[in-house]
């Protein structure tokens, strides 16, 4: 799976916001998580701004193009390890077809490079000796 791993960037910047159930911003959300404290939305930044929804974290949305099962073991550990080693925070949303990673917007390019390093030289999975640690 790692040999074919790549990521694409969804256009724009995205933000996390918490709103009350039924808030109009929910209709513009790209992801919704219902929590005890409120409804967490991942919104395009311009939509949050237009609706006056407060937010803090501004993210780039990366989608892993590798197809994996929801029962696959190890993929999340691999990409979270390489991002953690690079000092890049990552929030993960798992879809049926892809994993989606929200990383700080200013770290987008470094995150892409870190993820692509998992392929190793010539497209093979990276091994410990392949990295310049």
Sheet with the most strands?
6 strands, antiparallel
Please indicate the count of domains: 1
Major β-sheet strand ordering: 2-3-1-4-6-5
SSE order, as H and E?
Answer: EEEHEHEEH
Estimated helix fraction: 10-25%
Structural class: alpha+beta
Radius of gyration: 16 Å
**If classified by CATH, what would the architecture be?**
2-Layer Sandwich
Shape: globular
Oligomer: single chain
Tally the helices: 3
Return the CATH topology. Answer: VC0802-like
Q: Which regions contain 5 or more consecutive residues with pLDDT less than 50?
A: 122-133
> What name goes with the CATH superfamily?
VC0802-like
Mean pLDDT: 85
DSSP summary, beta strand count: 6
Distance from first to last alpha carbon: 23 Å
Describe the 3D structure.
This protein is of the alpha+beta class. It is built from three helices and six strands, in the order βββαβαββα. A six-stranded antiparallel β-sheet has the order 2-3-1-4-6-5. Strand 5 and strand 6 form a beta hairpin.
